[in-house]
């Protein structure tokens, strides 16, 4: 029979899975299904029971499956889209809704012996979500219980523009106060990134500073173009404490990655859209960005020399990134920060461009349009391992420089998980 220590957990928490009362030395399949917004994902492993008829995923390596080593969270880590889902589909969770899983124990004769429903929450139940609708700003504050003040993180959106709670919700489960804002394609905000004045990010920063429960320890957190934005903002706000930049381009670029500054388009290098390489129909953009940023001049570069030396930096780079030549860009960024005497932590990891929260499904491509697939790069197993490792190192860095927030209280966990009706019918 299946044994799961907690069927209701936070996204980043580990789950202990085992089985007992099995036939000794027989192979059994553990099959995990995740259905999110109608997109079915699955993972599996086949493990041989021991002489006592038991299997423990934290002890036993699979004979075959979507992962191959001892890993208590291997099933969660390696869920992948099934063939029923259209190629290029991307699983997103902008509102940070819970993930619901069904775990099945299956015999060699394909008989379902037992099954358990599980739930992983992106947001801790004690965290209060405060909507921001003020002075042309749209966002949300994830506030821990109590009066504060709390160490704060601002999760800066990049090319998506919309209000996206993913990183913010999971960071807030660690006790940090976290804020995120929409910048375009939302309510009455501009429709295009190119119509946004980059001053809006400073406006968001000043608003967060003004909150009575925000401490004077504030970090910026950005992925992809968001990683470039947080590096830029560091040159404008010496009162910042720390910056986390993940797979961020070296600078802004025209025509798709450029904001307005003082009402006019920023001066930046222009990308050559003939340079991406198509491999089996999937576009690798890294050569295009490598060529673009090789032409950077002082007027098109970020103003590294204007960044306060009191701001600590963490740069994370995926070695197998197909969107950017991440290693080159991050090393150049580190060198620029070293020249100005900054405290810089750099982490190079195997994986593709989109390094997200722990146990988020890996995507090697997405459909940019009906005629173009853009590659993220990487491979499922090393990429998803990196997501867990990188996340834990984010937390170490943030706690080191912002201070360790108070641990959130345990919540009343469900002992039996019921799926929402629309999911139950598809599992």
Short overview:
With 427 residues, the chain is an alpha/beta fold. It folds into two domains: 2-122, Sandwich (Immunoglobulin-like); 128-402, Rossmann fold (3-Layer(aba) Sandwich).
Query: Radius of gyration in whole Å, from Cα?
Result: 22 Å
Number of helices: 8
Strand percent estimate: 25-35%
Q: Taking strands numbered 1, 2, ... along the chain, how are they ordered across the largest sheet?
A: 11-12-14-13-15-16-23-24
Percent helix: 10-25%
Beta strands, count: 26
**Briefly, what CATH class of the largest domain?**
Alpha Beta
Instruction: Quickly give the structural class.
Output: alpha/beta
Question: Any guess at the CATH architecture of the largest domain?
Answer: 3-Layer(aba) Sandwich
Q: What count of structural domains?
A: 2
| CATH 4th-level superfamily of the largest domain | Alpha/Beta hydrolase fold, catalytic domain
CATH topology of the largest domain: Rossmann fold
What is the arithmetic mean of pLDDT? 95
Would you kindly provide a written description of the structure presented here, covering whatever features stand out?
There is one protein chain. It is globular and about 70 Å long. The strands form six sheets. It has an eight-stranded mixed β-sheet, with helices on both faces. Strands 2, 4, 5, 7, 8, 9 and 10 form a seven-stranded mixed β-sheet that branches. Strands 21-22-26-25 form a four-stranded mixed β-sheet, with no helix packed on it. The chain contains eight helices and 26 strands. A hairpin with a 2-residue loop joins strand 25 (365-369) and strand 26 (372-375). Helices cover 19% and strands 30% of the residues. The protein has helices spanning 74-77, 166-172, 199-210, 225-234, 286-293, 326-339, 380-402, 421-424; strands spanning 2-4, 8-10, 17-19, 27-36, 39-48, 55-56, 64-65, 80-81, 99-106, 112-121, 128-134, 137-143, 150-156, 177-181, 214-223, 242-246, 253-254, 260-261, 264-265, 269-270, 277-279, 282-284, 312-318, 344-349, 365-369, 372-375. It folds into two domains: 2-122, Acyl-CoA thioester hydrolase/BAAT N-terminal domain (Immunoglobulin-like), CATH 2.60.40; 128-402, Rossmann fold (3-Layer(aba) Sandwich).
